[in-house]
Amino acid sequence: MIQNNYFSTNTDLVAQFSDIINWNEIIDAFEDNFTDAQEYAKTRNEALAYAPGNYEDALEYYRTLLDSLGEVAGTTIAPVAAEMDKEGLKYSNGKVVFPEAMTRAYKAIQEAGLQPYGISRRRGGLGLPCTVQALMMEVMGRADAALAIAVGCANLAETIERFASKEMSDKYVPQMSSGKLTGAMALTEPNYGSDLPGVQTKAEKGADGVWRITGTKRFITHGCGFTDTPSVILTLARTGTPTSGARGLSFFLVKGEDVHVASIEKKLGLHCSPTCEVVYDNSPGELIGEEGQGLVRYAMGMMNTARLSIAAQSMGIGTAAFYEARKYASERIQFGKPIEKIPAVKKMLEHMEREIAAMRCLLIEAARTVDLYLWRLERLEHSGMPDREVRKDETVRKWEKLANYFTPLSKYYTSEMCNKIAYDALQIHGGAGYTEDYDVARIYRDARITNIYEGTTQLQVVATIGGVVAGMAPAGHLRAYIDEELSKFQASATLLRVKANLEEAVVAFKSIADGEAKDMLAFELVEVSARFIAGMLMERSAARQKGAAQETRLDQIKKYHVDSLAIIAANLTKLKMAAPVAV
Ligand SMILES: Cc1cc2nc3c(=O)[nH]c(=O)nc-3n(C[C@H](O)[C@H](O)[C@H](O)COP(=O)(O)OP(=O)(O)OC[C@H]3O[C@@H](n4cnc5c(N)ncnc54)[C@H](O)[C@@H]3O)c2cc1C
Description:
This protein is α+β, with helices and mostly antiparallel strands. The chain has four domains: about 1-180, Orthogonal Bundle (Butyryl-Coa Dehydrogenase, subunit A, domain 1), CATH 1.10.540.10; about 180-290, Butyryl-CoA Dehydrogenase, subunit A, domain 2 (Beta Barrel); about 305-455, Butyryl-CoA Dehydrogenase, subunit A, domain 3 (Up-down Bundle), CATH 1.20.140; about 455-580. It has helices at about 10-20, 25-30, 35-45, 55-85, 100-110, 130-145, 145-155, 155-165, 165-175, 295-330, 345-380, 385-390, 395-430, 430-435, 440-445, 455-470, 475-485, 495-510, 515-545, 545-580, and strands at about 90, 95, 180-185, 200-205, 210-220, 230-240, 250-255, 260-265, 275-290, 335, 335-340. Strands 3, 4, 5, 6, 7, 8 and 9 form a seven-stranded mixed β-sheet that branches. Helix 2 runs parallel beside helix 11, helix 4 (about 55-85) runs antiparallel to helix 5 (about 100-110) and helix 18 packs parallel to helix 20 (about 545-580). The longest helix has about 40 residues, at about 345-380. Bound molecules: flavin-adenine dinucleotide. The site of flavin-adenine dinucleotide (FAD) has 21 residues, from strand 3, strand 5 and helix 16.
């Protein structure tokens, strides 16, 4: 693996951080007038000692964290990624043994003060907006996808902080911050994966008032904990009748010591990420929040941040593939020259680079939409305001709707594209890419899970399509967002042509009468919307850059639009053929 600082040497990432992201609006949304810093000044509560007191401090704090993480990722984790992957996990009698190198790499992150990044300051976390969390996940994901997940698991505490009682949060979250506990999320069962409303693991309340859970969960990442650190397993279980559907499901916190890890999967990739079968046999569980809200409110409420996390991991894996391929192509000589000079290889490298730029624009915009509603929503929820009133808040309504479109869109786009980039990166390595001598083979295997877990691409399309169709209506939220963003820069004629294509695609899709045909073509419409939005965000980025960086991006954007027009032409043909009215 390339060994350098995975933040400071990544020019596109640094350009996003330094020139493109509008940090002030994110800092406003997250820091809420720098309340933590003000409280620290009054109370000297040590947990808030690092809370930034102004925009400059906040930005410096984020940059320092990303720079330190970039250094640890590129110089401590990346060098052992191949070794960890080769050694893998060992399972015996319910216990999972991790490679020594992985334990050391995890410790390096902790010792550098980079964990836990998803927990609030007052409960011992770093206190970071989603945009920074996403960039951190990207940087770790580039070094090693399995380790990135291990680090991310402790941050499941966010669910407890948001939805459990204060007593439960005070009891468990600080232990997750200090590294005494880690987290796992147990939704999937052997017979219910995408179809979560069907989950059948049962929870019953005994005469002693204790909930007891019985059933089997499958594919539970870190259900076994990490090394000697046990997990608290956030478990979806049925408190209603077997046929009570989504509203019969509740969320429980179950201690790792109260379940049995029956096995771990042998997998294509992510060799150091334990995927556990977890058996609950009358296991005690503590109810999180209210009965019946487990799927409809709590799991769904965490969906946007969960999707963002995997989109960011995909971003990291795709970036690793691109940089490894570019390095190899500069060193491998064929026909008397480096293969990077051969047009067919050059074309692949350029395509990868512009898709990486588009993916990052989408990821960061998705994170922005989450930041702009989530923290305000949490503050209102915790203020004691009735739920009905909270839901009427204009800012929350606007940005949550947009996040419900952007997070599945970015998850689908970055994970699919990360696979495509890994595929081409392996191709550029030729026969060497098919051996385990180069990192690209591992990267290719690890990439393959990203468009499956945390909801497959097909399910992301189901989640996105409504946001495109309703959102593009005359008074729709997506249309209003697009108008607002387009007013911030001078759009190119080609971008406006892509927009006109999107309008046509929406009309064609809406006029398809047959429901099944619509479901079959939903991907085509979602893809058209993704190409337009990514193109628009790239143009908006260019408008915030200067000099050579701007020139390079403008050149990249022209080619991106050409790719988009070709893809859209094919999709429009399919949509129009199915929509006789529009033909
Ligand atoms: C390595 C790994 C780690 C995981 N970690 C966790 C974890 O920590 N916690 C957890 O709870 N789960 C976890 N999972 C489970 C993961 O989220 C599921 O595998 C995933 O959601 C898909 O479910 P499934 O495997 O049952 O596939 P299925 O639901 O059986 O889907 C099979 C195919 O049918 C398609 N399909 C199904 N329904 C629809 C539909 N309505 N519309 C369109 N297409 C559809 C899917 O897209 C897919 O192509 C993990 C899985 C893996 C492999």
